[in-house]
Amino acid sequence: MKKILVVDDAKVVRMVVSQILKRNGYQVIGEAANGREAFEKYKALKPDAVTMDITMPEVDGIQGLKDIIAYDNQAKVIMISALDQRDALAEAIRHGAADYVVKPFEDDRMISALHEIFGDSTPVEH
Ligand SMILES: [Mg+2]
């Protein structure tokens, strides 16, 4: 089972993302509330992928992404953004983000992004 680290400053969003992941056969190995925590947990837990919010206090998701990619250039990080964050998303993709999902969540979009980065072409079933 692929292990995912879920990063968002909003607890309710972490819950929603975690539920989507678990429903679709992924293991949520940990959660983090900002980019610094994300980097620390990435090193400690070695997840197969990360879902990374962009706007978070202290250390945002772009910096979290940069730190993770600098540490592991094979890291699979999916950015989670609000609709109006195109510039930040473009920066994230430039810095090695694997993909992005726009809030509010579309389950299918998140799961197909994960299938894609893991090279799994199995269609999403409900
Ligand atoms: Mg946020």
Can you describe this structure?
A five-stranded parallel beta sheet has the order 2-1-3-4-5, sandwiched between helices. The protein starts with a strand and ends in a 9-residue tail after the last helix. It has five helices and five strands; from the N terminus they run βαβαβαβαβα. Helix 2 runs parallel beside helix 3. By secondary structure, it is of the alpha/beta class. 34% of the residues are buried. Bound molecules: magnesium ion. Residues 8-10, 53, 55-56 line the site of magnesium ion.
Can you tag this structure with a few keywords?
126 residues; alpha/beta; Rossmann fold; five-stranded parallel β-sheet; 5 strands; 44% helix; binds magnesium ion
